[in-house]
Sequence to fold (479 residues):
Amino acid sequence: MATITSLGAGSGLDIGSLVSQLVSAEATPATTRINSREAKLQTELSAVGMFKSALSEFRASVFPLSLASTSTSMEATSGDTSLFTATAAYSTMAGSYSIQVNRLAQAHSLELAAVVNKDAQFNEGTLKITVGSNSVSTEIAIDSANNTLEGIAETINKAGAGVTATILNNGDDRQLTLKSTATGEANTIAIEVTGADEVGQLSLASTFAYSGADAGLRQVQAAQDASITIDGSSTETTSVSNTFLFTSGSLSGVSLNLESVGVDAAASTAKLEISRDTALTTDAVTAFVEGFNTLLSAIKSLTRYDAKTEQAGALLGDAAVRSTSFQMRRMLGESIGGASSYNNLSSIGIETQRDGTLKFNSSKLTAAMVADPSGVAKLFSGAEANENEPAIEGIGNRLTTYLDKLIGSGGSLDSRLGAINENIADLDDDRATLNMRLQKLETRLIKQFSAMDALVGQMASISTYLEQQFEAMANMYKK
Fold:
């Protein structure tokens, strides 16, 4: 508002202060109403945001239960992890197997038949390196820029030929080894050399040629497949690497990783147990129960009422919160249908307490998974329709779908938060409108008081003039 100056000269009144007080009296109740409205909207915005956040955290604990893999995962246990470790896919069949580790996979390794002086140079030519009979060959050109042993090793390593070159130093002597980057019998190294020998230079051909028999290069370690025997079979199972991936049969879905070979057959043999991974399901259900109880605590905080202090939670009596609480409790208490006796949460050890929280008996879930693992899986993640029963929507699916409608992009809570923010933004327009009205009021009051002040000033002048005239007449009569 404008600063009021040079008013009251005619009347003697503090008109500036008077106008300011009148404008303030007009502004105070309207400003208070706007600020109060904004405070309520900000409180609601914060509370709804907290409610949405609590639902999001609960949704994170619910989602794993909607996945079939959570309740159908299998666990592979090695009887001796120093021999092998293993994992199993959820589709693997339960069973027990005897695994004998016969040998580990090895990479083909070669070294120079004789050491080479650090200053020695080789004739120009080409090394054609092939790893495995079906592999693409890599040709490596040797010339004056790379014709030392270090230069050749560096060029090989940069070529991506499927081998690595390593140089060992012993004074002025150098020893070079070549090793296949892949294990297994299929990845043997062969090297062809082209280029004419030259006087005063070492021969590439006599130093690097290798075709399966010791020559310039000699074999340090043969290429070898890994081998295991399953349940004493007369046929070995082999792999080019120390990892066995089974894609068929009773071990389908199992990944077996060899670690070592024992000193004899007995020391190289251990049990492989494939069983249902109850711990994964138990952990997921535990997280779900804890997630629900945490959500319930958040809702109670937002809707509480303290009779002593007469303080109410920001969402006390909120229809959306009441509806959400009701819908979730309804879903938690429902049965999913189907032939299994494990078709509700109570049947697998989840009970509702008097205060509304959930309590979980994990031993009851474990027993249910042993008795009917398929039924437990359906309870959480549902199942598609088949000839024996219609489609089943699991509790995990139901809750996830419901929560997504609430907290997902464009969901009901997103819409509500958007509406609150729009209302808060509208208050800025209300403040702007109020300021314009107050400015007009101030201008009008200044104009009115200015006119009054001028009139009072005129009347004061007339009064002074009349007094002077009367005084002059009185003085004249006295004479």
Q: What stands out?
A: The first helix runs from residue 15 to 62. The two ends are 59 Å apart (CA to CA).
